[in-house]
From TrEMBL:
InterPro entries: LysR-type_TF_proteobact-type, LysR_HTH_N, LysR_subst-bd, WH-like_DNA-bd_sf, WH_DNA-bd_sf. Residues 6-63 form the HTH lysR-type domain. PANTHER family: HTH-TYPE TRANSCRIPTIONAL REGULATOR, HTH-TYPE TRANSCRIPTIONAL REGULATOR TRPI. NCBIfam families: PRK11139.1. This is Transcriptional regulator. GO terms for molecular function: DNA-binding transcription factor activity; sequence-specific DNA binding. One of its GO terms (biological process) is DNA-templated transcription. It comes from Caballeronia hypogeia. The keyword Secreted does not apply.
Amino acid sequence: MRPTLPSLNALRAFEAAGRLGSFKEAAAELHVTHGAVSQQVRLLEEWLGAPLFERHNRRVVLTPAARAYLTEIGPLFDQLAHATARYGLSEAVARPLTVNAPATFTLRWLVPRLETFRARHPGIEVRIETSNEPVESLKDAYDMVIRGGPDTFYGYAMRPFLAEERLPVCCLALLRRVPLRAPDDLRHHTLLHTSSLPRVWPDWLAQVDLPELRPAAVLTFDHFYLTLQAAVDGMGIAMGPTALVAGDLAAGRLIVPFASPRLPSRSYCTYVADEKTDDDLIVLFRSWLEEEGESFAIEHRI
C-alpha cells in the first residue's frame, strides 16, 4: 500500500509560493486567488504539523526545513509535466471536449473560471452547450453532462464537485430605499421567485418562523438567471445559491442581508457514460472541475 500523501493542490500551491517567494505571484501563475493559495498552504502546514513560511509584509520566506522540502518536491512537478506531455493527451487533444451544463451555472460559475483551464491546457478545445434536458437523453451527444445531484442514472458515473447553499441576496441600493433590518421587514419588499423553484422562499421563511409572511409583491421568472439579474437591478430580493452569486458578492453587485439561516442545496455533479470514464480528456476536465470546486469551498467555507 502506498503511503498517505497530502493534497496535490496544496503541494502545487506550496511549490509555486516557495519558488516565487510570494503568494500573490503564485496565485497569478496557478490562475487562482491569493486566498486560495494561502488556504492550501495552511492545509499543508496542518497536514505536516509544521510551519512552511515566515511572513514578512508582502513577501514570504521559506523556513529552513521547508526549503529542503521544496528542493526535493520541485523536480517532481517537472517530471509530472513532462510525463503528461509525453503520454497523457497526445491523441485526446485531436478532438474537442463536449460538455452540457445548465445555463445559469455556465454563465455565473463555469465561464468565469474556464480561462484557468484554457491557460493550463491551451491545446484542448472545450465546447459547451446549455440546457436542462434529462441526463439520460444526452448520453450520445456529449462527453460530460453537468447537473444537480447526487443522482443515480443507469450507465453513468456520477461525481460531485461543487457544493452550495441558498440565502437571501439583494443590491445595496434597494436597502437604502427600503431598510431590511430583520426578516420580518421582508413584508415591505418584493420577493423574487423562479418558477422551477417554488419552495425556496417558503422553506427559508419557515426557517425564520415566518411561514405566513406576505411580502409587498412577488415577481416570478421562468429562468433563474433572470431572477438573479432582477436582484442585481434592485427589483427585489432573491434566494441566491452561494456558488452562483459569489462573483456578484465579491464585486459588490449583491449583498447578503442575513447571513443565516442557509438552506441546503443540491450539489453540482459530473455525469459521464460508463464507457467514457477512463477517457484522458474527460478525466482531465473532471479533475479540474473538482479542483475548482475544492478551492471554492475553502474560500467560502462551505
